[in-house]
Amino acid sequence: MLSGGVPSALCPPTVLVVTDGSREGSTVAASANAVARDVLVTHALTLPSALVALDSSTYDCVLVDVGTPDVAAADLADTLRGHAGAAALVLVVDDDATIPAALEDLADLVLQQADLTGDWLRRVRRAVEHARVRAALQESEAAVARLTGIVESVADAVFTTTIDGLVTSWNDGAEALYGFPAAEMLGAPIATLHPPGSDEPRRILTMVRAGKAIQGLDTLRRTRDGRMAQVSISVTGLRDHRDGLSGMVVVARDISDRLELEAELVRQTMHDALTGLPNRSFLTYRLTQAIAEGRRRGRPVAALLLDLDQFRAANDVHGHLTGDRVLTEVADRLRVLARPTDVVARIGGDEFVLVCPDTDVAAAGRLAEQVIEAVGAPIQVEHRALRVGASVGIAVAPPLDCDAEVLLKHADAAMYEAKKRGRARSQVFDPALARLAGEQRLLAGDLRAALDDDRLEVHFQPVVDLTSDRMVGFEALTRWHHPTRGAVPPGTFVPIAEAHGFVADLDHWVLDRACRQTAAALATGELTPGVHVAVNLSARSLDEPNLVDTVGEVLDRSGLPPAALVLEATETALPRDPEAARASLAGLRDLGVGISLDDFGTGYSSLSFLRELPVTGVKIDRSFIRNAVERPEDLAITEAIVRLAKGLGLETIAEGIETAEQRELLRDLGCARAQGFWWSPAVPMAELPGGRAAARVARILQPAGTADPAPPLRSTRVSRRIIEPSAPTTVVTTCCLRGGIESGQAWLVVTTAARREAFASSLGPLHATALARGQLVELDAYETLRRVTSADGRLDQARYDHVVGSALRRLAAAGDQVGVHAELGHVTRPLLSQDVSTDLRARLHEAAALTLEYGDHPADCAAHGPAVAPVVELFAADGSTAG
After folding, report:
1. Beta 651-655 vs 426-428: how paired, if at all?
2. pLDDT at residue 3 greater than cutoff 70
3. pLDDT tier at 578 (50, 70, 90 boundaries)?
4. How far apart are CA 394 and CA 369, in angstroms?
5. 553 and 589 belong to one structural domain
6. pLDDT attached to residue 393
7. Cβ-Cβ contacts under 8 Å for 383 (sequence gap 6 or more)
8. CA–CA separation, 665 vs 263, rounded Å?
9. Which residues on adjacent β-strands are paired with residue 88?
10. Mean pLDDT of 424-437
11. Could you tell me which of 343, 195, 365 has the C-alpha nearest to residue 279?
12. Who wins on pLDDT, 176 or 459?
């Protein structure tokens, strides 16, 4: 127990007896010893020893033999009082002595010597109790003072009330928060602070009486000037000395700033910073609410997802500020179209969504047309009228039964279908689109696994100098043979890689493999020095800040000279971030790598931008080459590109050369180089011109003008027949490829790349669905003829079984009947025997038992789809009907 503390009343009193050592036989000491059974006595014969005892121990009473009550006695008492703490100070003076007032003020009890003969101990005990009470009171007062200081110093409002709600205390924080001074609030009802008609005081009092505390209740309180303050209050019961409820303690804090900050954070989190529209998070929340409400009321909810057409071109050409102005104007136009119950949101760069309760499919279609019209109107930006369009996907629940995220995915799938159908149009979601999306997700997973497991292949298509017909390089192209679906075209899997975010990884893989294989072929002499390899880069790769370092590392690992590498970037990918693109391309040129613009003429790059880029060449897109011989417009564009490139000192490469006429035309226009099926499709490195492919070397190195003349061309129609595993039975006629697939048939299509593209465009989503289900296998006509031809120029049975037979067997497992559409007669490539084409066509006809007739297009007929082309005219070099 520390000096100055309050001893327990249950222990025997402890008494320090202080006597003057010269007063031997002191009556005080003797009296103390006489009651030693009731008290614990300690003797101090001098003042110093008494002070040491008081500082080291705690006593209930200090009994002092003063003797004569003079000034010295007063000093002694004062000294002891300072060290006694809470102990009772009892002074014993001589009999009949006059007791000064100073001693009476210092002492708790003054006795005379004569008093020690009576019941003096009872009087001492009473003094001890008084001393204890006094000490406890002083301690309580100190605690109250400390608490009062704390309450007055805090910024929060702290006040107390009676159990009836009358204010009994009011600190400075309460006055600052509510505006009422203490003089007005003390004794006032707490209801003064509550909004009129509020039932909150009664509810709070009920909870406090039930022994419950209220913590952090956000509510409103009325201030002296009549406004409503947003506060957070905590209320606890106030207990009296009998532990009864005597009132309440209220602590209140102004939360106006906090709520404003929270509201702003929510607004920023849930809204698009540029347009102020709800973002995807808020949209999902509101759409979820709308779907739930629609189900409860039995009403449909429509989600319209629109993507701006041509926005990227406007953004790239005119700058991001102009693009931002276009986006804000589109947002404003959508707000005008929306009803008060609709939600307009921006969920991506140029993607917007309208959520429309009580809107069925028909109403959503009408709204989509209004959206397309409104967005398509000219947008004035700095005295310039810009036009963008909108492709709109529509998903309505019901009939769809799904949550918000899935409904948005359905609308997104419909929007992409609308874009494929020609942009600036709308498309209602069809369940077939969902199946297609699911199949594409599965295909994306398989592609990612094939990339990770190194199961892709790199093939190389020769690039030929048009002046000498000499191979000067080749383009590296990715090929993927799916374990169950067979060959998957790059036009299918590259967009999937882009959509799922790993196209840059695919780029890096192709770059690494192409450089390593090319370096190895140069080192072994299979390739002559001076050839180059061209590798495509996606827009995603061009956006990577470490692109230059990545390319440099690949060159170092492979040992390929930088001059032997050309990186191809599509024209439309470069203006995404012009400065970053310029910096990356400049860094690549510093490495010594060539840069070529792929698909030139299909983008929106300004000529000044092209002039400033450190590129070394341009590739003329195949869409111009395909029709340049027959269409003056495409010829004019092709000629303009060649002249422009020459004027800028750039090399020109034409892609997609498939006929002698195209080759001669590009040569006459002054195009430097070309590639295409006229010379070779993309093949493995081992099949490129070299020691192991002498026949192909002879063809590619053959001087211009010495090739065997092609047979006369004649126009013919194409017929298709069905091949079944067994011998022919009854002849059945079907109408078109679409009708056959929809009826469960499986089809083998053998034709050119251009024709396959036309079929895919005509079939729409059914094309990808059939590929995914294994109902459709597509083979390249030239590649198929090449692969089934033996070394002596005849149809090889083993090769036929491996190439065509394996495809037919896969199709037989996928459909009830197997159909073959083969366009072979028009293939007039050198090194391919016409006899092989005839023999292969005959082999297919021998097994046929079902004839396909069509009027407008091989893929569609009047009953199964719109005619997408006039009657198909093909050219058979041998004068026969293509089978």
Report:
1. unpaired
2. no
3. low
4. 11
5. yes
6. 93
7. none
8. 67
9. 61
10. 80
11. 343
12. 459
Contact between 749 and 777 under an 8 Å Cβ cutoff? The reply is: yes
Three-state secondary-structure class, residue 100: coil
Q: Give the span between the Cα atoms of 283 and 404, in whole angstroms.
A: 9
DSSP 144-201: HHHHHHHHHHSSSEEEEEETTSBEEEE-HHHHHHH---HHHHTTSBGGGGSPTT--HH
Whether 556 contacts 532, CB under 8 Å: no
Domain shared by 113 and 40, yes or no: yes
In this structure, the chain runs to a length of 883
How many angstroms separate the first and last alpha carbons of the chain?
114
Tokens of 396: 């309505």
| Domain closes at, from 145, 178, 210 | 145
Whole-angstrom Cα distance, residue 274 to residue 750? Answer: 51
The residue whose two tokens read 């104007």 is 329
Tens digit of pLDDT for each residue in 225-249?
A: 888 888 888 888 888 777 778 888 8
The total domain count for the chain is 5
In a domain, 391, yes or no: yes
- The answer to whether residues 88 and 131 touch, using CB atoms and an 8 Å cutoff, is yes
Does 543 share its domain with 413? no
By CB atoms closer than 10 A (0-12, 13-18, 19+), residue 820 is: buried
pLDDT (tens digit per residue) in 717-767: 333 333 333 333 333 444 677 888 887 888 888 888 778 888 888 888 888
**687: three-class secondary structure by DSSP:** helix
Helix (H, G, I), strand (E, B) or coil at 337: helix
- Strand-pair category, 389-397 with 301-309: antiparallel
User: 486 and 556 share a domain?
Assistant: yes
User: From CA 147, how far away is CA 233, in angstroms rounded?
Assistant: 19
Is residue 200 a contact partner of residue 228, using CB atoms and an 8 Å limit? no
> Residue 137 class from Cβ within 10 Å (0-12 exposed, 13-18 middle, 19+ buried)?
exposed
The single residue listed with the structure tokens 């303009």 is 640
Q: How many CA atoms lie within 13 A of 725 on its CB side?
A: 13
Query: Which amino acid makes up residue 783?
Result: E
- Alpha-carbon torsion, ordered 518, 519, 521, 526, to 10 deg: 100
User: Would you tell me how many other CB atoms lie within 10 Å of the CB of residue 252?
Assistant: 23
For the cut 80, the answer to whether the pLDDT of residue 360 exceeds it is yes
Helix (H) or strand (E) holding 168: strand 167-170
User: What's the pLDDT score for residue 452?
Assistant: 92
CATH of the domain at 525: 3.20.20.450
Asked whether 762 and 751 are in contact (CB, 8 A), the reply is: no
Give strand ranges (E) for 171-258. Answer: 214-222, 228-239, 245-254
CA distance linking residue 587 with residue 605, whole number of Å: 21
Query: What distance in Å separates the CA atoms of residue 696 and residue 788, rounded to the nearest whole number?
Result: 16
Residue 531 has pLDDT above 80, yes or no: yes
Give the pairing of strands 651-655 and 617-620: parallel
Task: State the residue range of the domain holding 491.
Answer: 447-686
